[in-house]
Amino acid sequence: MFRDRFWIALLLTLPTLIWGHMLQRALGYEAPMFTGARLVPALFGAAVFLYGGPPFLRGATREIGDRRPGMMTLIALAISVAFVFSAVVELGFPGMPLWEELATLVTIMLLGHWMEMRSIAQAQGALGALAKLLPDRAVRVRGDSGAEREEEVSVEALNAGDVVLVRPGAHVPADGMVRDGHSAVNESMITGESVPVEKAPGTRVIAGTVNGSGSLRVEVTDTGERTALAGIMRLVAEAQRSKSRAQVLADRAAFWLTWIALGAGAVTLVAWLAVGASAATAVERLVTVLVIACPHALGLAVPLVLAISTTLGAQSGLLVRDRRGLETARLLTAVVFDKTGTLTLGEHRVVDMLTVQDLRPDDALRVAAAVERDAEHPVGRAIVASAAARDLVVARATDFEAIPGRGVRATVDGRRYSAGGPNLVARLAVTVPLDLQLFGERAAMRGQGVVYLIDEGPAVGGGSVGVRAAFAVADAIRPESVDAVRRLHERGIEIVMMTGDATAVATTVAKELGIDTVLSQVLPEEKASHIARLQQEGKRVAMVGDGVNDAPALVTADVGIAVGAGTDVAVEAGDIVLVRSDPRDIPRIINLSRATYRKMVQNLWWAAGYNIVAIPLAAGVLAPWGIVLTPAIGAVLMSMSTIIVAINAQLLRRVEL
User: Fold this and answer.
1) What residues pair up with 549 in beta bridges, in sequence order?
2) Domains in the chain and their CATH numbers?
3) Is residue 352 annotated as a catalytic residue, yes or no?
4) Residue of 162, 222, 322, 338 marked catalytic
């Protein structure tokens, strides 16, 4: 709307300037004369006011109705005063009409608002981009694999339990679980992760992500507003509606600046009349003060920066639910991490291993994974998962046998193997080599489980029995956690780990990561009190947890950071949500917070400083020295201030997180 009105107002302003006195005097030319030429500025200037002015007049009406006069009130007052004064002069009142100034002011104000709205629209464009990720149609599959029937339906028609076919290159229509097929899915638009994620039966997929070269059959688990994508859009929208402390301060400053401008305008009018100036001159000074003092740039300074920072965060996998949390992040002195699922994977893995001298570790892990492949125990699954993480080719085992409470047994490559803990060793009455025995004792002291690989000899005919390897199994530390702790330490931030695990387990993880303070065996209901105690020590504290049992602590902390949004973005406790569950995003939050604050301060100083200097100039304090600002130049300066603030805010996009 502002764009369309600007272009038409500009066309109407050109005749006003060409046949007006100001431009002719400045450029030394005479406009073509014809019957009624003298009325061209009045006719076109009035047309500009009547066409381009209503948005500002309506805005002023709303502000006055809310008893919060602001920038629209000032603009409406300035253009209304100029219009009425010019119309009265045309009817015979002595003075110089302000048609050119009026037309220029309205046109430039329309341009400024167009630029402002365009900048804000770009900043909020993440929502539109996210919305476009969802396809309109989906291919639903009915029947079994023998008599399968495909039907194309709207996404709104999908229900939980439906099976959809996602062809290569297609968008996933809903959150779900892969039932059949293998592919790599591009999730960068949701998680920020650039590498496609491998999908196989049993893995989750997120609505809006893009399938790779494989074909997937997905069972729908969530649709519509319950999808991860809808949750992300909801969080981004909430963040863009929330107000930070700096924004509240800027709004208050804009409110008071409006009253200051009105007061300065009144004083200017009275002062010029008191020194004997003409009514036209006094009104011109009044209009210039009202125009140049418009707190437009001040009103834009903080909201635009915050809108851009929210969008940057969303594009990088950092969902800002409450802008006050983002604003506070720059002041953090301590970060408290939950251990399980935050610093660790929340899943057991082989964290260390030792083999007899003639056996390579990878070969031992390959055999152990083959033996454990059909096991149901979490420790067995940990060994299988660790082998898969190393891309080891695991042979198929036969004659699998579970030994309740002790371990498992199977035949691999013609030899009989057993895998289990100390109870299995005792049952088989085998001797554990000293080095493997010491390895097991050290692992137990660290709170880690120990699995021994026992070679029972050839499957046919039997043979020697011996322990060939030992594996330490524990909740594996995320590969990213070490780097995250290091980056936070570089910023002078204390790292605290708070967990319900045993002290031995917590201490082992903390030592490996270089964490400063360990709080172990902490019950969920005690976590909030530990956060409060750190705050009482004068620390600004961020809590990083999964948003469920850590919810009270997340709310208590100065900044609550919820982890795990990739699968469940409906985390209501945190101020900021990490889509990728990557602890390295914590330093990036601090970087974004500091960069955002710098831009806000720069914009506030420019907007406020501009008014401090410009209002006296507009009032005419330098008139004795021949320096007088016209309303048109005032409008240009005000719009330039707004554009500078908008450009400076856009520079935030160049910040490397």
Assistant:
1) none
2) 2-125+240-306+599-654 (no CATH), 137-170+175-222 (2.70.150.10), 318-344+478-587 (3.40.50.1000), 345-477 (3.40.1110.10)
3) no
4) 338
